[in-house]
Design goal:
Layout (H helix, E strand, L loop, with lengths): L3 E7 L16 E2 L2 E2 H11 L4 E6 L3 H7 L6 E5 L6 H8 L8 E6 L7 H8 L6 E8 L8 E4 L5 E5 L6 H4 L3 E10 H7 L16 H8 L3 E5 L13 H21 L2 E3 L5 E9 L3 E3 L3 E9 L4 E2 L4 E7 L4 E2 L4 E3 L1 E3 L4 E2 L3 E3 L3 E3 L4 E4 L1 E4 L2 E2 L4 E4 L2 E3 L1 E3 L4 E2 L4 E3 L9 E3 L4 E2 L4 E3 L2 E3 L4 E2 L4 E2 L8 E2 L20
Bound molecules: uridine-diphosphate-N-acetylglucosamine and calcium ion (CA).
The site of uridine-diphosphate-N-acetylglucosamine has 27 residues, from strand 1, helix 3 and strand 10.
């Protein structure tokens, strides 16, 4: 089998986006349009992506500068889709199969692309078409009496009769590089738009006696190009709804499939319950029986079985083990690990800390750079003073420590197993195992004292 290379057209300006950001960098489900195209190409085994850029080329190249499988092609003047593909051909392996894609058509499925690649042979090329209720603006597919595709005519060049055709060109095709190398240099721009049309290779293929095999996508949204912010929003909703359907099919309860956003990948076990307005970012895994309340943002997190996350919690790069409880209004920052049955309550921020099995941080606390042992109980308003203005220091609370409310733990500090800290303490030194530490002003009660009185005017 010849290798498959992609030519991705992304040189257009995207005027209707009315944006300083190049169109193909606008995010769909948290990822630039062009990144979706690159990913689906990789999914079908494309080894090189020849990406044709023009408007905003520098920013696009910079965004993808880590992708070694992209080879950039500059198209300074946009003289048409045929001209764009021609610019890429010198770098394309002449023995390969070429898949022509578009930087602003983000949601093609691998199945659809594979069906197109599979028909490519020395006798045939693959063309993706779709039937639309309203075909206005698209190139129309022309077929002969036997139903064979013989040409594509652009809207602006079409006769009234041709405009009645509702089967349209998606622009996506698969064919041998050798054929493109023969046909592209022969294109002319003698048409209504004065452009070199890639679509003219269809008539060339038919004229050379080759079969043009048409395939159709599973969903019309797969081939929808994004030209405006309204279309972008429409396709985002469609994509999110598809993901919601998949989750429900896998045993997840969604209180409202229309109010869920997955910007990355979400893997969920059985009997997970998701309330409304949850945003998942990056890679998130949920065990079975997880319940998440409304208005949570969860990024790159591993969440075990039976975990409950209450409303309005923000979780980023954290690991939460089985049956732990978080929130409402909790913030878990990168490097947080909650062990089994741990409890983090309201208005608690935790950063880069390990919270042991069954430990509790229930109210209004900041725990940073800490190691909190099993069954430790941290009282309301406890703060780890982990930063001295220059360096970060560690707080270690061994198992079964009890920290009274409103305690400041000035790191570095170690509190031994089973120790107790009196409420309102400022702990600056080591506390031994089982000791009681109290570090606060002593209470004085004065009898001979009267409140100040207002001066008479
Ligand atoms: C093209 C097809 C049309 C099809 C439609 C589907 C041609 C001649 N027509 O029309 O049959 O129905 O797509 O959306 O191919 N581009 C470049 N360089 C260029 C020209 C275009 O990179 O010189 C890129 C654009 O950024 C855009 C894409 O190619 O993403 C399509 O170009 P556009 O000129 O918009 O083609 P359409 O008129 O939409
Ligand atoms: Ca277009």
């Amino acid at each position: 089998m010849p290798s498959v290379e992609a030519v991705i057209l992304a040189a257009g300006q995207g005027t209707r986006m009315k944006s300083s950001l190049p169109k193909v960098l606008h995010p769909l489900a948290g990822k630039p349009l062009l990144a979706h195209v690159l990913d689906v190409a990789r999914d079908v085994g494309v080894v090189r992506m020849h990406t044709v850029v023009g408007h905003g080329a520098d920013r696009v190249k910079e965004y993808f500068s880590d992708c070694a499988d992209i080879s950039w092609v500059d198209q300074v003047e946009q003289l048409g889709t045929g001209h764009a593909v021609l610019q890429a051909m010198p770098a394309v392996d002449p023995d390969s199969t070429v898949l022509v894609l578009y930087g602003d058509v983000p949601l093609l499925s691998p199945q659809t692309l594979q069906s197109l690649i599979d028909v490519v042979s020395p006798e045939s090329i693959g063309l993706l078409t779709v039937n639309l209720e309203d075909p206005t603006g698209y190139g129309r597919i022309l077929r002969d009496q036997d139903g064979h595709v013989v040409a594509i005519v652009e809207e602006k060049d079409a006769t009234e009769e041709q405009k009645q055709v509702r089967e349209v060109n998606t622009g996506i095709l698969a064919l041998r590089a050798a054929d493109l190398n023969r046909w592209l240099p022969a294109l002319s721009n003698d048409n209504a738009q004065g452009e070199y049309y890639l679509t003219d290779v269809i008539a060339m293929a038919a004229g050379a006696g080759m079969r043009v095999e048409s395939r159709q996508p599973c969903y019309p949204q797969e081939v929808e190009g994004i030209n405006s912010r309204s279309q972008l929003a429409g396709i985002e909703r469609w994509y999110q709804l598809q993901q919601a359907e998949q989750l429900m099919a896998g045993g997840v309860t969604l209180y409202d499939p229309g109010r869920l956003d997955i910007r990355g990948s979400l893997v969920a076990g059985q009997d997970v319950t998701l309330d409304v307005n949850i945003v998942f970012e990056g890679e998130v895994r949920l065990g079975s029986g997880v319940s998440i309340g409304p208005n949570c943002v969860i990024s790159n997190a591993l969440i075990g079985d039976g975990v409950t996350i209450h409303a309005n919690s923000i979780i980023e790069e954290a690991e939460i083990h089985d049956n732990a409880t978080v929130g409402p209004f909790a913030r878990l920052r990168p490097g947080t690990v909650l062990e089994h049955e741990a409890k983090v309550g309201n208005f608690v921020e935790i950063k880069k800390s390990h919270i042991g099995v069954g430990a509790k941080v229930n109210h209004l606390s900041y725990i940073g750079d800490s190691d909190v042992g099993e069954r430790v109980n941290i009282g309301a308003g406890t703060i780890t003073c982990n930063y001295d203005g220059v360096n970060k220091h560690k707080t270690i609370l061994e198992s079964d420590v009890f920290v009274g409310s409103n305690t400041s733990l000035v790191a570095p500090v170690i509190v031994g197993a089973g120790a107790t800290i009196g409420a309102g303490s400022t702990i600056t030194g080591k506390v031994g195992k089982g000791q009681l530490a109290i570090a606060r002003g002593k209470q004085r009660n004065l009898d001979s004292w009267s409140r100040p009185k207002k001066n008479p005017q």
